[in-house]
Amino acid sequence: MKQIILAEWLKLKYYRTFWVILILSVIIPIAGNYTVAEIFSSKDLKQAQFLLGGPFSFPDVWQTVACVSSFVSGLYGILLIVIVTNEYNFRTNRQNIIDGWERKDFVFAKLFWVMKLAVLSLVVVAIVGALLGMAYGSKSFTFEGFNFVFYYFLQVVVQLIIALLIAVFVSRPGLSIVIYFAYNMMIEQTLVTILKRSVGAIGGLLPLQAGDELLPFPGTKMLAQSMPGGTTTYDTYVYLIAMVVYITLGIWLVFRKVTRTDL
Amino acid sequence: MSILSLQGISKRYGAIQALSGVSFDVPPGSVFGVLGPNGSGKTTLLGIVTDVLKADKGSFQLFGKTATAAERRKIGTLLETPNFYHYLSAWKNLEISASIKQRGKDDIERVLRICGLYDRRDNAFKTYSLGMKQRLAIAAALLGDPDVLILDEPTNGLDPAGIAEVRALIHDMAKAGKTIILASHLLDEVEKVCTHVAILQKGNLLLSGPVNEVIQRTDFVELAAGNNEELVRLMLQYPGCSSATIANGKVIASFTANPDPAAINGWCANHGIWLKHLQLRKKSLETAFLEITHTAAS
């Protein structure tokens, strides 16, 4: 395992594109959260802040930051697609096997990136939440509500597994990124809307939506449910189970594809 | 124990049967040529051995064991095109290869020097010419000084000097007792280095074994005299001469057993024909190969 991690590091440590996308993936959620915090701290939105219960004060700040960050976490998926499809593009996925990796080692190597990027996203959100809570909030620091950061982490893992699946099955960089974007931005949301309208709350169990259901902006969920015809939702554990199932299914499909087909 | 043992390997791509029940053994210390025209299944066969392709049927062993990554790490392989990270230098690409092969970095300088790339070691792979990319692929195969090499068309893209260098390298490694599995459609290349051969055509194994046993290549003699027609008539009376024909101003005489040029010279002189040209030749592997594949096709 140590050798796999070392080889992956050697592949990317001098790859400029990797560093540029990685830095953007870290900066954009920070900038996004800072901007939202600044807007909420402006005079015009003081009233809204009162209605929503102080989204940048502890404990709500964890939920706020996780929610805002979930809008831009797709960048990590693009980075993963670049990492994986480069291997197919340069045919180094074949060379790694020829040189002495098992096919499953190749999958492990990419799953390491899934975990590394997801942990990085978690650390970034935790630090941003703590800093914004202290800078813009009116209550003292607490880890209460930190479970939302964990939900965000799970959602990023789901997102990365979707990116990995697309990269492994499509294998071409440009097409993979377009499909990933389309799914993230449009396809799933359309399916969610159709399912929620025609079937009901089950629409909220689609892969990315399951995370979104657990990460509403503080106060908005109660507002939505209190309105006439408001949405119904499942218990939290149902969404968590759904995400774990998607992650497991995705990993299984990637293993199946890489270990069984010609490279 | 064979280095590589194949049993009934078959592979199909849709309607195309790429390999049909191919079986042969590669003995240790041999330079084993896998021959065949383009599309005969050579690369598919080596792709299966290196686990980048999956066989539909059959099995194979490396070093007498079911092949795993551990066995592949003992083999230096160049399969088809050179595959490297375009944005990395030769040195950094070889660091990755060394890491996967679980070998130290201490051999990188040696293999880059052997392949003439040491001075360009810090240039990105994408800046290399086709020949340089091929040299880097050979360098990667040599990394760690493996006892077994699989080389698929190793002289692809090389200039004449590069081709000669690779041939010399293969000769040197064969002399050092290494086993080399060499796939090529360039028969001239194979003829100069191989001790054993397997010939494939449209996925079928036509024959395999030591070159001199499986390919009959009896010597023939090339002669010329003042009157070649007279020489042909005389040669047809020579004991053991099976045919004599004129081609390009010379008489080509074939024999049922290996001919003795001195005896032929004496025979001609005794019969009043003075030779101005006499040369013992071997049927080229290319001619033998074409005969074998043509016979199989018909």
From TrEMBL, chain A:
This is ABC-2 family transporter. It holds the Pfam family ABC2_membrane_4. Keywords: Membrane, Transmembrane, Transmembrane helix. The chain crosses the membrane at residues 20-41, 61-84, 111-136, 148-170, 177-195, 236-255.
TrEMBL record, chain B:
GO terms for molecular function: ATP binding; ATP hydrolysis activity. Coiled coil: none annotated. It comes from the Bacteria. PROSITE patterns: ABC_TRANSPORTER_1, ABC_TRANSPORTER_2. InterPro entries: AAA+_ATPase (IPR003593), ABC_transporter-like_ATP-bd (IPR003439), ABC_transporter-like_CS (IPR017871), P-loop_NTPase (IPR027417). Keywords: ATP-binding, Nucleotide-binding, Transport. SMART domains: AAA. Residues 4-227 form the ABC transporter domain. It holds the Pfam family ABC_tran. Belongs to the ABC transporter superfamily. This is ABC-2 type transport system ATP-binding protein. It comes from Chitinophaga dinghuensis.
